[in-house]
Recover the amino acids of this structure.
């Protein structure tokens, strides 16, 4: 872990400094205040920042994002209405900050869906900039994928159809408009989409009020109370859980399931409980692991998810346990704490974590191989030495093929990660070694430290069409680290 933390700190620190000096060369995006005032992305952020001192932390409760109710359930499908609009919220206590939202919620409301039951989402863009909504981790047709160039104009509406013909998974939705995705997600355009099925529901895992989505991220709030945005900003050192900086969350002395989502632009989290107690990891991006994995740390790069179970019955009522982070950049006094769990009551608990959670299908014999190289020389970033061009097809994939992709982070300083649209994949190797238990399930995003190589296998038997793959450190993809594959 020391090597990983050193690499993260060095890479992100260099990135921030380089982008500040090279701001004029960056792709043009727009900076938004709540009222839609534009400014040039890459502008140096104000020097004075607002944050919460260590002595003033854990004064506000962590909210649970609202579960969105369908406006219609007729015809065997659930229909939702979502409006993208500016709003204000208190990320820091007593400070009103302008954000971009889905339905006025920061983060966006949670959609709970079921495999085999289609969902229709009618998105209304009431912002001043075009947007594109991507359901991250979902198998959907090309026209419903939220392609970076397939945008919703300001004032326009768009209907997305999600067939949910895939197993359970903790998915999430977010903006994907190219050159703007980094800033739009940073300012709030993201939310959870929790897909369940009969396999998951048959298990006696914590559920209902004891199944809690937690979106983690970082922010840089300037002296005026605004979200300061500059590409690769290393000053995003205020840690936020479900829209609140350093909140507390009251829990009963029993087991809880937490759906952890790293919704940061570039920050990774290396999470542990302050007393070093066990955390049971039960899932990742594509749903439950085959078997639970007991650990004391959870590492998540941008866009990755982890389903974990924490058993608070081991603590007496009155105990306070902090969820800590050790991944840079930033001083541990700022970034070392995430949220606090306050054990304030007892409660009955019939839940348990079975020794077997699911069966994954046997991987088919590979039908082909290809290699992908990730590199960055700020202010540009590259996929196979090319900057993203929406008019270019970078990979032609035969429909039905099952391919092994060798993904290489060729940078010696910068960390990256890798996300594929449409498919969930299986990780075969990390630097030639068997992957750790946390990589044993279905994945759609995988982290790569400087110089690291990951070998994965994906089967392209869902839909035909063009889809992107990219680094999900969104500041990197906005700088060009993205490519297009055509499945036919």
């Amino acid at each position: 872990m020391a090597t990983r933390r050193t690499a993260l700190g060095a890479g992100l620190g260099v990135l921030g400094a380089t982008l500040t000096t090279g701001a004029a060369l960056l792709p043009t995006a727009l900076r938004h205040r709540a009222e839609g005032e534009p400014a040039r992305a890459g502008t140096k952020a104000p020097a004075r920042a607002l944050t919460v001192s260590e002595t003033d932390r854990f004064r506000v409760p962590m909210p649970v994002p609202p579960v969105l109710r369908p406006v219609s359930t007729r015809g065997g499908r659930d229909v939702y209405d979502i409006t993208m609009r500016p709003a204000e919220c208190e990320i820091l206590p007593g400070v009103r900050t302008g954000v971009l939202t889905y339905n006025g919620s920061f983060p966006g409301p949670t959609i709970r869906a079921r495999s085999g039951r289609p969902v229709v989402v009618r998105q209304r863009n009431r912002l001043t900039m075009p947007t594109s909504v991507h359901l991250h981790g979902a198998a959907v047709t090309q026209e419903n994928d939220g392609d970076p160039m397939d945008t919703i104009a300001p004032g326009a509406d768009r209907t997305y159809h999600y067939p949910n013909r895939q197993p359970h998974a903790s998915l999430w939705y977010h903006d994907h408009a190219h050159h703007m995705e980094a800033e739009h997600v940073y300012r709030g355009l993201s939310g959870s989409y929790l897909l369940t099925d009969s396999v998951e529901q048959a298990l006696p895992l914590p559920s209902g009020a004891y199944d809690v989505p937690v979106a983690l991220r970082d922010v840089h709030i300037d002296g005026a109370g605004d979200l300061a945005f500059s590409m690769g900003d290393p000053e995003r050192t205020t840690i936020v859980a479900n829209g609140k900086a350093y909140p507390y969350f009251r829990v009963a002395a029993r087991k809880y399931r937490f759906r952890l989502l790293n919704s940061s632009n570039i920050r990774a989290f290396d999470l542990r409980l302050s007393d070093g107690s066990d955390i049971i990891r039960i899932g990742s991006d594509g749903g439950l692991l085959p078997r639970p994995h007991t650990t004391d740390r959870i590492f998540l790069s941008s866009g990755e998810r982890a389903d974990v179970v924490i058993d608070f019955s081991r603590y007496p009522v009155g105990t306070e346990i902090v969820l800590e982070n050790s991944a840079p950049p930033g001083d541990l006094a700022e970034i070392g704490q995430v949220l606090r769990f306050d054990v304030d009551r007892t409660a009955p608990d019939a839940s348990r974590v079975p020794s077997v959670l699911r069966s994954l299908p046997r991987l088919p014999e590979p039908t082909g191989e290809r290699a992908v190289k990730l590199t960055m020389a700020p202010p540009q970033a590259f996929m196979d030495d090319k900057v993203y061009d929406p008019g270019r097809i970078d990979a032609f994939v035969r429909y039905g093929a099952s391919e092994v992709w060798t993904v290489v982070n060729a940078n010696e300083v910068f960390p990256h990660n890798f996300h594929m649209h449409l498919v969930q994949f299986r990780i075969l190797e990390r630097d030639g070694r068997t992957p750790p238990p946390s990589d044993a399930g279905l994945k759609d995003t995988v982290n790569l430290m400087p110089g690291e190589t990951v070998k994965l296998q994906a089967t392209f038997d869902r839909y035909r069409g063009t889809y992107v793959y990219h680094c999900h450190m969104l500041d990197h993809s906005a700088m060009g680290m993205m490519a297009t594959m055509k499945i036919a």
